[in-house]
# Entry
Amino acid sequence: MGSDLAHVEARYDPATDVVMFRLWGQTSAAAIFEALERHFQEHPTCRFAIWDFRRVDLNALSVPDLMEISRRSAAASAARREPRTALVMRDETNYLLGKVYDALSETGRSPIEHRVFYHLPPAFAWFGVENAFDKSG
# Structure
């Protein structure tokens, strides 16, 4: 895999029921599909998900990509109780892209509640759990 392609790391903490996806490089819808489907096949009832997009370039994602990500995410979340997903973005442009994704998910009747953040601590606070992964935020 070249350095310009997305690298995805998924870490799960069963005590807090949080999965954190961290991405680096130039991402694609396919990289996101693969990460979410792999995790939710193994942990189908995981309640909280964080997508840390602060180190990734999201410019390659189109509106149809966002719609398909939302559709697949909703399907993968069928067994999740009151699912919440936090999108953590690095800048205003990506933050707005996260808000567009949230609106598309709501329009598509996704069962997942989404919020967009700039930093990890407010995302964990929204979940009502501590960050078991690191304290760097």
Notes: The chain has a mean pLDDT of 90. The helical segments are 29-42, 63-76, 92-107, 120-127. The first helix runs from residue 29 to 42. The radius of gyration is 14 Å.
